[in-house]
Amino acid sequence: MTGQPTARDLARRSQAAVASKDRQAWLELFAPDAVVADPVGSSPLDPAGAGHRGPDAIAAFYDTVIAPNEQVSFQIERSYLCGDEVADVGVIRTTLPGGRHLVIVRGVYTYRTDGCGKIAALRAYWEFDSAEMVEVADGGEHGPARQRRT
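RESULT FIELD:
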């Protein structure tokens, strides 16, 4: 064992930083040449489908995709640590700005470490068109939904 954090350790730190809205802590987890593909492939979040590579692109991803949201929570149902990578299976719930809508994304989220204590790759496998959007009855805190929209 190298004494470096495992990919699972880094995944949990990443998830905690996002949930607590700690931009700096999240950005510091990534290696200088890291890539974030969330989701993997072409989507409205990444039309070219190449991922967001390097500190500036990853910071821009945080600022435009993560930061504006009211709340992001992670429910990891299963986690598989293999070598320098971990695959987390679970659900991400994101309360959109204004607190009236919740997006529910089911997927597989992989993290690869660079072996030096940093994330080399974060790859999120989920289908953009399959994300669920629900209207939150109380306007926040992932409360009960009144209406489901896809």
